[in-house]
Write a structure and sequence with these properties.
It is built from 15 helices and no strands. It has 321 residues and is an all-alpha fold. Helix 5 runs antiparallel to helix 6 and helix 14 runs antiparallel to helix 15. The longest helix has 29 residues.
Length: 321
């Protein structure tokens, strides 16, 4: 069986094995550079008809984002009890909003940022190691024709021009504090070009594979002995909470897919509590409607930025956190 995200998982595990016994680092530009080309590759899948199909599913995406946040609220109580953290920190540890987003929100709320970072990292690790192989083996493959665009030929000058323009868009997003600017800037650029029929080039598969290696190796460098053993109770609680959250969101995804008529496997990936780049890459590897999956995760990211802070403040005011 061919494992999706093999380049990412392999690089992550190999780097983690090295990081266990010695200091390991990655060039600071490796992950951002990989995300630029990943963003272009994902955005290129949004032709005009595909963008229209994804837009028509916006109500379901909003529902999916809300269900993910509410599921995190439910799991937060379990996590707090298992990890022994305070309720506020447990809340930011459990909501599947992305490592950077939840760390920034936790800092604003004066929660324990180190604990939140560890818990969110372990959640992404659990999802990356479980969802791609399980979906590749078990997931039903529906009809994704309306969410699939024709692939354009590769042209070096066009690709380099897109990469430069996408990088230029990423810098202002970074200054605004937007999570994943290196991916979102190029992705939005490619979506605009693809939807209007002006996309100059596709992104070759080797570049997407290289992006996987950069992302996996960067994640692996965090899995040092001190990081994993500093709080074994916290690490175990994070893994258990991630498993429970994954099962809960998978059940909800199947129910929402049945009610909305959207493909089940794409819904499972769209609601999965993994990071946006990792889940979009999984959809690309398995050909499970990349634009639809990416749309779900973009919607969740926006909702987390808008709602998690106010939900936290309301929880504190009414004594729930």
């Amino acid at each position: 069986m061919q494992v999706p995200l093999a380049w990412m998982i392999g690089a992550m595990l190999a780097t983690a094995m090295l990081a266990w016994s010695r200091p390991v680092g990655m060039p600071g530009w490796a992950r951002p550079g990989g995300l630029v080309f990943l963003g272009l590759a994902l955005g290129a899948s949004f032709s005009g008809p595909v963008l229209a199909a994804v837009t028509s599913a916006l109500p379901v995406m909003l529902l999916g984002g809300l269900l993910a946040i509410l599921s995190g609220l439910v799991v937060a109580r379990l996590f707090t009890r298992l990890a022994g953290t305070d309720h506020q920190t447990g809340f930011f540890c459990a909501v599947p909003g992305g490592i950077l987003v939840m760390a920034m929100l936790a800092q604003e709320a004066k929660a324990n940022v180190a604990t939140v970072t560890l818990a969110q990292t372990m959640r992404v690790l659990v999802v990356v190691l479980s969802f791609p192989p399980l979906l590749g083996w078990l997931a039903p493959h529906g009809d994704y024709a309306e969410f699939t665009a024709a692939r354009l030929p590769f042209w070096w000058p066009g690709l380099l021009a897109m990469a430069a323009a996408g990088l230029a868009l990423a810098f202002p997003l970074r200054r605004l504090g937007i999570a994943n600017p290196w991916m979102l800037g190029p992705c939005f650029l490619a979506i605009g070009l693809a939807a209007t029929g002006h996309l100059p080039s596709s992104v070759p598969v080797p570049l997407v594979d290289a992006a996987q290696v950069a992302m996996g190796a960067t994640l692996g460098t965090r899995l040092t002995r001190s990081f994993l053993l500093a709080s074994q109770r916290l690490a175990i609680a994070s893994i258990l909470a991630a498993v429970v959250l994954s099962l809960l969101l998978t059940v909800l995804a199947v129910l929402v897919a049945w009610a909305s008529g959207l493909p089940v496997a794409a819904m499972i990936l769209g609601l999965a509590p993994g990071g946006m780049p990792e889940m979009a890459l999984t959809a690309k590897a398995l050909e499970l409607g990349v634009p639809l999956v990416l749309g779900f995760h973009l919607t969740r990211t926006v909702l987390c930025n808008l709602l998690v802070g106010p939900i936290h403040r309301l929880g504190v005011r009414f004594g729930l956190l």
